[in-house]
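Tokenise the fold.
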Amino acid sequence: MVVLGIDPGLATLGYAVIGERSGGFLLHESGVVRTAPELPFPYRLKEIFVKLESIGSKHGVGEMACESLFFTRNAKTCINVAHARGVVVLLSALRNIRFFEYTPTKVKSTLTGYGKADKKQMQKMMKLLLNLERVPAVDDEADAMALAICHLQHRRFAECSGM
């Protein structure tokens, strides 16, 4: 199974395409989609859609794992993230890619055993689990990696328990 992990955002959206390999994980591609603030809003969303559609097609993505929307004090940021997340949900529906969502606490507890792990702990875990030369430089990219791996772990659990 190849999973596309998404850390949604309008200005910066993290993504990671991860598959399974003999008990471990294989990173196919990861990065960030950055949209220019001077672009009209609909075109920023279109840019996200086009990039993610291309990545999904290139790697034969079968499932998507996205961060659940959580409320923040900054309403504008929350609304922009919700719009970007809506693009992700729409893409999954249009391409018949199963969509799953996880809270940050669920991702952290799945990967580190501690639901309040900090960014550095999560980045170190990504380096370890994906056998990377260095920790991911951008938080959004690391978060997308973590979402994809969290989903793959939950799939393994479901398969083992016969769910």
